[in-house]
Amino acid sequence: MKKYIYLFIISLSLFLTSCEDFLDRQPKSSLSQETYWQTEQDLKTWNAGIYDGLQATLKNNWFYWGELRSGVYKPRGTAYDTNLLYNGLSSSTGSSNWESLYSTIYRTNAAIAHIPGCPVAVTTSNNYLAQAYAMRALMYFYAIRIWGDVPKITEPMEDIANQERYYGRTSVMDLKNFILDDLDRAIEAFGASTDLGSAVKYYLNRGSAMAIKLDVLMWYKEYDKALVIANDLIKNYGYQSEPASSYAKMFLNPTSSKEMIFNLYWNYEQDGGGFGYAQEIASGSNTIRYHPTEEIYKELVTRKREDVRTILIMDTIGISSYITPDEMTEEAYAKAYNGDYGNTANFQIKCPKFAEANDKGAGYTYKPNGECNVEMPIYRITDVKLLRAEALVLGTKKDYQGAVDAVNEVRRRAGWSVEAKLADYPSEKDLIKLIIDERTIEFWAEGKRWFDIVRNDLVKEYLDQYMIDADVDNAETDGFNIGVTKPSPDHIGGYGRILWPLYLDVFRKNPSMKGHQNAPYGE
């Protein structure tokens, strides 16, 4: 059914712009209030197209934007991209293209423009309007974290005939209130809070809009405001952290978990091929492209099976035919690369987090790249709890012990008994690194870590040695080369090579963009 909905949306030719007409936005249709936005089915159909846009945007970029560059992966096989791993982005890098993201924004703009005037009852239509506002905010939030200043476009395509043909870049700071205003409109339209722990996870609701707002406030260093949102989400929305006994199940069946707040749903038969999880880190059809670094491997070996998260990051059964359980020590990683256990090419640490256990009860069934189904978490309540811990460290309402307690709560519920002690983390920076390191394990393969280290201005702290230790062709002797100086001490978000470059087609299509590439990238 879903594919027919999307075919219908395509036939409207309103928002599904091609590469040739992106930001060269002439009206595609005379579709109007009288010809379409008339029934709840119209709203459902358009809403499906909005989520299709989210899927297209994050199919691979959940990993490329949110995790791969963060210094915790090494290449495997032959299809890896060292430019993504080792600070080699350019304007021709495919994932620097924002077309899918803006196509999603166009669809939300249409919903926001048309739903208020449609004859569907407000009690029904408000939910669709709220989802559109929340999705637009989420898309712009991704955009500012990836590219910094980006075009602010709010009009539906059919309404711009008399407006400027091209858009320049709006600053990250100017977009702050726009994003937060969209989220506030969404929260208001969703209505009063209810027990959302058992709500459908694949559609935005008040809880997920609140989670996005928390994330945005943390990005803009509004820690005290973020703390209020986090406390509200933890206390009043019915979410609960999943215990160790059912921890793994929530990634395969998020609908049954009160921990999940919002998930991206992907079915390869409905969505046109497999989600990127398989080809990158869990392939059943060829060698994976990336697996954990030696540092991460050692951390996992230290935790072993006591921490249930370990075996969801590292398939210990899968590598046991190469490294036996008795040999699975901290030294085994280097030995494997030295060929001590046989052909080094056979050493690959797959991530089974979203893989089904096989029917023999031991190990996992990894799907071919083109048949990968995933229900990828975008927000979970544990995410909220650890962001709250950051706010307790960095806001004006200091509670360092409370932050350490939050980390220990997350560890205990995963079965790891080793508790952090405040005395071992004497500075705020030490505490933030404790939280980031715990988030790295907790949210492995969920596209969080890069944003965590950028949000806390710790890119060089985490990546300098990683870049120095990279293979000769990719190593940077002075660490991660940002390429420009920080614009100001209180600068928000990325700059220089922390950001992604604008894609080369932007400058060909939009003359107002010329000369406005993210330095030091070329156009």
Automatic annotation (TrEMBL):
Belongs to the SusD family. This is RagB/SusD domain-containing protein. GO terms for cellular component: cell outer membrane. It comes from the Bacteria. Keywords: Cell outer membrane, Membrane, Signal. Residues 335-519 form the RagB/SusD domain. Residues 21-206 form the SusD-like N-terminal domain. The keyword Metal-binding does not apply. Its main location: membrane. It is found in: Cell outer membrane.
